Amino acid sequence: MKILVVGANGQIGKHLVTFLQQSEGMQAKAMIRNEQQADFFESKGAETVIVDLEQDIDPIANAAKDVDAIVFTAGSGPHTGKDKTIMVDLDGAVKTIEAAKLANVKRFIMISSFDTRRDAIQHAPASFAPYVAAKHYADDWLRRTDLDYTIIHPGGLTNEKGIGHVTVGEEVERGEIPREDVARVIVNCLENNATIGKEFQLITGSTPINKAIDEL
Hints:
This protein is 40% helix and 24% strand. It is of the alpha/beta class.
């Protein structure tokens, strides 16, 4: 199985590409913005494709033509303005969903925000509300498709070493989770078709990742 990782140069994306390349039966195709980012992925033996997420749909669809699944891990980051939030977290996500349709790729995993319900937008701090709104509408767009989707809502992301144990559920208490463990959860979802059509919140917990995903 070949997986197009959109946002591969991000911190979750790099962990994900590493794990996919180490797995049996899966390989990563890293979608990156420029050639200077390629060295990391080539050192892992991963294929790379240069596509700017702010381009039109066609280049994304072309990147997806030979893959079996797409994982959207891209994000505008905490230090950008509302314009980048719109262009990456909303428009970039929607274009990737539409590109999946054009490329006939059914399996799609979306890395979202912890809570993207309508109420969460209204209660988010002013600086964070545009991001939550972007994720809300991107998630909703995906739900309305016939793609085999999974939507993952991770808690506060950290760069701590992953422990391989999580808590997942439709609604869990707010908490944190290492990016490394988010990447491990993505791999488990790719391996487990029972996660198709599901979405869940995700934080560090006491249950081994594979068991937690099996019990969804």
